[in-house]
Amino acid sequence: MTKKYGQNNPKIIDYVESLVNDNDPHLAQAQQIAQHRQIPKIQVSPLDGRHLEVIVRSIGAKKCVEIGTLAGYSGICIARALPEDGVLYTFEYESTHAETAEEVFQAVGLSEKIYIFIGPALNNLSQINDKGPFDLVFIDADKESYPQYLQWAEQNLRIGGVVLADNVFAWDHIADQDIDNPNLRASVDGLRQFNSTIFNSKRWRSTILPTGEGLAMAVKMY
Ligand SMILES: C[S@@+](CC[C@H](N)C(=O)[O-])C[C@H]1O[C@@H](n2cnc3c(N)ncnc32)[C@H](O)[C@@H]1O
């Protein structure tokens, strides 16, 4: 699936991609491994990967959490931004995805700072409660659980810590009134609840970076 950008001019998209993709052997290697293992191409776009990396670097994050590993593309973007003693805990439902991510992290030399948990994230997140508080949580898994992932983040982030969440525009359906497909409806409901909480709760100060997918960014205030 081709990821879109908030910017719709194809010439500008090509231009930005050429800037961002230039000279990135690790991300290229990750994609080769994922393709070989027939993993669906639903990773973040190269530009969103760069957003993750720059945000992690800019807040000086040392302990990060990712929900939705897939084959490790976004995990590389986060983990490469961590200091030597930094850690990424990443959660993935599908064992084939997690095994591929393991191979990818080994191949690019990041496996020592990344811990993968396999199974439904809601069952596994409590395993790392005692490793917190965390600096950043990136949410990119099942959309109907975004409100519960946010609750976990609220309890386990440090003050000033950041939640990032991808796809908060619900593939352009976030503002639709009538949604017949029940799966899509559940995803949109989850995303609306998530968006509403980060904008209406005093515990969060939030924005949505208007990428094609919508990348929410919320800072924990207290
Ligand atoms: C969009 S992909 C993640 C892409 C990844 N963040 C990247 O950019 O490289 C979503 C992933 O979430 C996983 N997932 C779905 N439901 C999950 C759950 N309940 N717990 C953990 N992972 C889940 C899927 O198997 C899939 O690999």
Automatic annotation (TrEMBL):
GO process terms (BP): methylation
Keyword Isomerase set for record:
no
Q: Where is the signal peptide?
A: none
Which keywords label this protein?
A: Methyltransferase, S-adenosyl-L-methionine, Transferase
Molecular function (GO) terms for this protein are: O-methyltransferase activity; S-adenosylmethionine-dependent methyltransferase activity
Superkingdom of source: Bacteria
Its name, as the record gives it, is: O-methyltransferase
Which Pfam families has this protein been placed in? Answer: Methyltransf_3
Q: Which SUPFAM superfamilies match?
A: S-adenosyl-L-methionine-dependent methyltransferases
